[in-house]
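Notes from hallway chat w/ T.B., transcribed later so I don't forget. T.B. wanted the structure written out for a chain they're using in a teaching module, and asked if we could keep both sequence and structure tokens in one place. Agreed to drop them here.
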Amino acid sequence: MPMCATRHVAALDGRSCRRRTQRACETPVCASVNARSPLPRFLLLYVALFSAFGVASPFLPGLLTQDGVSAAWLGVVLASGTAIRLAAGPVGGWVADRSGRPVLVLTACLLASALVACFYAPARGVGLLLLVSVCHAAVLAPLTPLADALALGSAAA
């Protein structure tokens, strides 16, 4: 049975502020993860994000060379993806800030990323692979900064 302590929390009730009693669990496991904690959702989000990066990254150069991209063009394709990330990351943050809906922007980028990744399979030739790589990098770039901003925002609350 976890040890719990009673603490008082102020709750805004329309016009006045009243005190109510809330039970707070003090065990290390309960304190870090409780029913209202966003931690499990953020852990799942980060596991999904970095698992996808970790699984795809080692195989992308092999996939590109298999599709007829030479070593020189492979460097151009991968460097173009990196270059577009430098611009797309801040643009994604700007859109999330201006819209005031960072969760929606994160979800849109996640869905777009999954959709664009499907175009690697039919793409053949340097031009199409370069286009898919740049588009994929553009929708991937805002994911980690948006997830970080949401995690920090929920930690501050």
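Follow-up for T.B.: The first strand starts at residue 4 and ends at 13. Might be a good example for the class.
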